[in-house]
Amino acid sequence: MRYVIKLSYDGTDFCGWQHQPNGNSVQDALENAIERLFGERARAVGSGRTDAGVHALAQVAHFDCEKVLPFERVVGGLNAYLPRTVRVSEARATTDGFDARKSAKRKTYMYLMYRGAPLPVFNDRALCVGNAFDTDAANTALNAVVGTHDFATFKAAGSNAKTSVRTVYDAHVEDDGAIIKFFITADGFLYNMVRIIAAQTLKIARGERVDLAALIAAADRTRAKDTAPACALYLYGVEY
Amino acid sequence: MRYVIKLSYDGTDFCGWQHQPNGNSVQDALENAIERLFGERARAVGSGRTDAGVHALAQVAHFDCEKVLPFERVVGGLNAYLPRTVRVSEARATTDGFDARKSAKRKTYMYLMYRGAPLPVFNDRALCVGNAFDTDAANTALNAVVGTHDFATFKAAGSNAKTSVRTVYDAHVEDDGAIIKFFITADGFLYNMVRIIAAQTLKIARGERVDLAALIAAADRTRAKDTAPACALYLYGVEY
Question: Is the pTM of this model over 0.90?
């Protein structure tokens, strides 16, 4: 039986979503909980990897187990065996045709920032941007990112994607004066793509002149070397 | 010279503001940083105590040191010696007549809640209230708290306040659909008063019939035994 679950995690103390030989991954935590609940070892396939320190408000994963359990029992049972930094909110059955990674049509990430002085309750959770942040400038510039482009400029080394062409459906900043949220939705993201675009967006919002269209056209990572810190990045949602 | 500083802290790993024989207090952390920066031991007097796990977005404290340092140097120097869970944002000189505790005219606390499924990034920082939270009911009920009353019902044992009469200037809930903030401003608060009122407000918002005016009139703590968790409470601001 193929189960699909929705889960949320605080990425601070994880080496990321994916299993690492010497790391504490969300995937390992989840697979250990599945084994304890179902009495079977299963591979948990996520909608995509998140890096060390990156959080998820709504990650989606699937796994196959022989045993059939009621869905409420799957939610409660996994949560009983998971560390409190990972919570499952939904579970249901799906068909073999569904693959949490391959079937994903759109993903949305949020990059969380805040104005003013550093607030320790936001440590490991959001980026303090002081007071000089021009949201209108950021939003105007981000129009250049929307559409189907070769995003090679915004791809970190280590990516094994076959193509660096992606379609960005939306990229915008919401700002309530205190909290600033950068949202980006695409059919998929290259390695570190959101954090590299976030770094350029930060520069623009701080008054630096950056031509995102020219950066994209260059298809050259050396033109956009900065990567915004992982701890302010959230996997916000996955659409199928 | 009397210095007054504004500071913020993540209360999770502290035993509270005040020094405890076997605890890690914010006051100790601050006094240790003052000693390292100024080369003098000084008592840091806060606007009030916060309990273990309670956060501060804007605590105010004063201390006396012989050495005169530029204010930017006080901010930067204290932050260099403080753990990252405590950040000083402002420092200035004040007169001997100013006392961070006694001179405080109004204090505001915020109780932070959120709708929906538990999100681990909010662990130790906010209370998950699920989906049944009636903000209008809470706001209507909270009118009974505003004004000058004997708040003995909302005073935990261990309080050594001379009188339990306090003036509440404002008590209301703000709700954006996802994040719910309960704000309360008063000339002072009894021990656990905010958390006890927050617990009753939660009951009301969840549909329980609670008469706050009758509870206040009873002047009897046994009528309001619940105390909302500390980790969702923030000292939000102090006015002088």
Answer: yes
Express each pLDDT in A228-240 by its tens digit.
999 999 999 999 9
C-beta separation of A73 from A201 below 8 A: no
ipTM exceeds 0.85: yes
Measured between alpha carbons, how far is A72 from B115 in angstroms, rounded to an integer?
19
Distance CA B8, CA B85 (A): 8
Decide if B120 and A89 are in contact by the 8 Å CB cutoff. Answer: no
Contacts of B62 (CB under 8 A, 6+ apart): B2, B3, B4, B5, B44, B45, B94, B98, B99, B100
Contact A60, A6 (CB under 8 A): yes
User: Does A86 reach chain B within 8 Å, measured CB to CB?
Assistant: yes
B43: which 2 tokens? 């008592």
Q: Is the pLDDT assigned to residue B160 strictly greater than 80? A: no
- Report residue A62: phi and psi, to 5°: -125, 160
Determine the Cα–Cα distance for residues A114 and B57; give it in Å rounded to an integer.
Answer: 13
- Cβ neighbors of A123 (< 8 A, separation 6 or more) are A231, B10, B84, B85
User: Which of B54, B119, B236 is the best substitution to test chain A (most A C-beta atoms within 10 A)?
Assistant: B119
Residues shown for chain A:
240
